[in-house]
């Protein structure tokens, strides 16, 4: 039986019945969506060390999720739903890589190291007067405690921005990954800067 002339709804029903042929037809019809969305996040993914093949695999998982979860009763076009699932999967992959990379860097993280697209030290990102936030913090335990205080003080969104910023993503790239405007990201950075400055002042 030739399934290629079947409408999407019937093909999805066949997919639910484990038809590999129906799944392949839908993949060939909509695989362009993966390529389009991957291009949006590819630079951010590269900066976080995500291999292209691994990133594409995440897109395929999002595609499969869409086929498995699609409900035509919700009056959403299949292509739209596939796009949403793929985008969500790729965003989560970038955020997870950012958090993992940030966690791996904690032991060697230095506020004097250059971060971001402008290659400025983190100390210059979070303080305005040029004072050394590590003044008086000489022990590793004290430094690790400072990092823990920072993580605890920031909201989930602020910590995501903080982690991506530390990993070299620009305001525009962070905005893309988090589905925010660059202005919203700038406002978030200003808030987290104030929180971090407050913590530093309290531990000095």
Sheet-strand content, in percent, reads: under 5%
How many strands appear in the DSSP assignment? 2
Helix-strand topology string: HHHHHEEHHHHH
Gyration radius (Cα, Å) is: 22 Å
The strand order across the widest sheet is 1-2
Mean pLDDT: 79
Number of helical segments with 4 or more residues: 10
Report on the structure:
The protein is an all-alpha fold and 204 residues long. The chain has two domains: 31-93, no CATH class; 106-203, no CATH class. 70% of the residues lie in helices and 2% in strands. It has helices at 8-16, 20-30, 32-47, 52-69, 78-105, 122-126, 140-153, 156-166, 171-178, 182-203, and strands at residues 114-115, 120-121. A two-stranded antiparallel sheet has the order 1-2. Residues 114-120 and 127-138 have low confidence and may be disordered.
């Amino acid at each position: 039986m030739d399934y290629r002339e079947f409408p999407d709804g019937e093909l999805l029903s066949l997919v639910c019945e484990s038809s590999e042929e129906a799944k392949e037809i839908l993949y060939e019809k909509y695989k362009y969506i993966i390529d389009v969305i991957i291009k949006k996040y590819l630079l951010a993914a590269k900066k976080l060390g995500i291999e292209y093949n691994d990133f594409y695999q995440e897109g395929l998982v999002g595609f499969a999720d869409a086929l498995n979860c699609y409900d035509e009763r919700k009056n959403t076009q299949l292509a739209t739903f596939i796009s949403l699932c793929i985008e969500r999967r790729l965003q989560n992959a970038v955020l997870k890589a950012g958090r993992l990379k940030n966690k791996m860097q904690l032991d060697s993280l230095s506020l004097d190291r250059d971060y971001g697209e402008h290659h400025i030290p983190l100390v210059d990102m979070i303080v305005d007067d040029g004072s050394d936030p590590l003044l008086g913090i000489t022990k590793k335990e004290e430094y690790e405690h400072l990092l823990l205080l920072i993580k605890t003080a920031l909201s989930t969104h602020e910590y995501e921005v903080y982690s991506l910023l530390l990993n070299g993503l620009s305001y525009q790239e962070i905005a893309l990954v988090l589905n925010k405007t660059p202005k919203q990201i700038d406002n978030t950075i200003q808030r987290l800067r104030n929180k971090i400055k407050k913590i530093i002042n309290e531990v000095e």
